[in-house]
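STRUCTURE REQUEST FORM
Protein name: prolyl aminopeptidase
Source organism: Candidatus Scatomorpha pullistercoris
Requested output: structure tokens
Priority: standard
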Amino acid sequence: MNDFAIDLSENVEINGSVQNIRIRTRSLAYPAMLFIHGGPGVTDRHLVLRSCAGLYDCCTIVCWDQRGCGKSFTKVSLGESFDIDTFVEDARQVVEYACMRLGKQKVYVVGHSWGSIVGVMLAQRHPEHVAAYIGMGQFCEGVENERLSYEFVLAEAERLGDRRAMRRLRGIGAPVEGRYRSERDMRVQRDYLTRYGGGCWKKREGIYKSIILPLMRTPEYRLSELPGMI
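Status: completed
Returned output:
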């Protein structure tokens, strides 16, 4: 049953930048729930709208493509500010817009991965807008997180006898103070992380299958919008 009272995608000026917001609900009486995606730069509205479909019977789903990402990506956005305070202020304005658009005083906020940093800071700084905060893949202690993540993929490569993976992982080396030497090195580790089941629960597949392919297949995005997500 797809009898939605609201099912729209709209561009809204947020903090000096045009950003896209997706809203879907069966009843305006339902509380609003804002999903703040990870990355930064990895939109997940297509996954939220599909995997959280059970929430349509109790919530209004609000998905937001952060500045420089997905439907909010433009050539102009390449020159915009991408510091954490800007994202938190963006989130505040998105919440205010959602409240105005849906006739609410507060919204529930779900932060995933990188979005959990933005979500926590939003709830701390602007509790008047947040009914409750829910963390998914909640970020905490980044340096220790990266160390454990690297050790996990290397141990899995050794357990599986994956010599190519062992060679590549030892080649990039463990992160120092939570950072890899380059973005390329980080992508190597992240690819093996998803292949070995450290990305999505019970899924052992690389970045292409877990992230890029679903984006290419979803009706939520056009192929021309992929540069804003890859």
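Reviewer notes: The beta strands are 6-14, 17-25, 32-36, 60-65, 107-112, 130-136. The first helix runs from residue 45 to 51.
Form closed.
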